C-alpha cells in the first residue's frame, strides 16, 4: 500500500528544496499544536502525494496549470511557493511572466497584477 504522506513529503522536498528538514518523514511536524493542525498533512497527502505524483502530465505542465488556477483565485500565499516550484520545474522567468500576461485576459488585470507582485517578491528572495 502506498504511503501518501511519505510520497507527498518526498515530492515537496523535490519541489521546494531546503524547506523541510531531511530525515524520517514521520518526524516532519507542521505545527500540530496550532489551529487546524491537520490541514498541512491533508495537503501533503492529497495534493503532493496524490496529484503531483501522477504520470499524466509533467511537473512542468502541472506548474503551468497550478499557476493559472492560483492566479485566478488570487491565492497569494500559495502563489509565492508555486512560482518557486515552477522555477524548480524548469520554467524561466520569461515564461512565468507570460503566464501572468496570459492570465490577465482570463482572470483579469487585478489578479495578474497581484500575481506579478507576488512573483517579484518570491523570486527575488531566492
Q: Explain this structure to me?
A:
There is one protein chain. The protein is mostly helical. The chain folds into two domains: 4-51, no CATH class; 59-124, Up-down Bundle (AhpD-like). Helix content is 67%, strand content 0%. It is built from six helices and no strands. The protein has helices at 4-15, 39-51, 59-73, 76-88, 93-107, 109-124. The chain starts with a helix and ends with a helix.
The radius of gyration over CA amounts to: 15 Å
Give the CATH level 1 class of the largest domain. Mainly Alpha
The CATH topology of the largest domain, please? AhpD-like
Taken from the alpha-carbon principal axes, the silhouette is globular
CATH architecture of the largest domain: Up-down Bundle
**Overall structural domain count:** 2
Beta-strand share of residues: under 5%
Span of the ends, CA to CA: 37 Å
How would a textbook summarize the main sheet?
Answer: none
- Work out the helix count: 6
Label the structural class. Answer: mainly alpha
The mean pLDDT is 92
The stretches of 5 or more residues where confidence is low (pLDDT under 50) are: none
Strand and helix order: HHHHHH
CATH superfamily of the largest domain, by name, is AhpD-like
Topology, number of strands: 0
Q: How much helical structure, as a percent, in the residues?
A: 55-70%
GO molecular function: peroxiredoxin activity
Organism: Mycolicibacterium hodleri
Protein name: Carboxymuconolactone decarboxylase family protein
Amino acid at each position: 500500500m502506498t504511503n501518501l504522506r511519505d510520497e507527498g513529503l518526498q515530492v515537496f522536498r523535490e519541489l521546494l528544496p531546503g524547506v523541510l528538514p531531511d530525515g524520517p518523514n514521520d518526524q516532519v511536524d507542521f505545527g500540530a499544536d496550532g489551529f487546524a493542525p491537520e490541514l498541512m498533512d491533508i495537503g501533503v497527502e492529497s495534493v503532493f502525494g496524490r496529484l503531483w505524483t501522477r504520470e499524466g502530465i509533467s511537473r512542468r505542465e502541472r506548474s503551468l496549470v497550478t499557476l493559472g488556477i492560483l492566479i485566478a483565485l488570487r491565492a497569494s500565499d500559495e502563489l509565492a511557493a508555486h512560482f518557486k516550484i515552477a522555477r524548480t520545474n524548469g520554467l524561466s522567468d520569461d515564461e512565468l511572466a507570460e503566464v501572468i500576461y496570459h492570465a490577465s485576459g482570463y482572470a483579469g488585470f487585478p489578479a495578474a497584477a497581484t500575481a506579478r507582485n507576488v512573483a517579484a517578491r518570491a523570486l527575488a528572495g531566492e
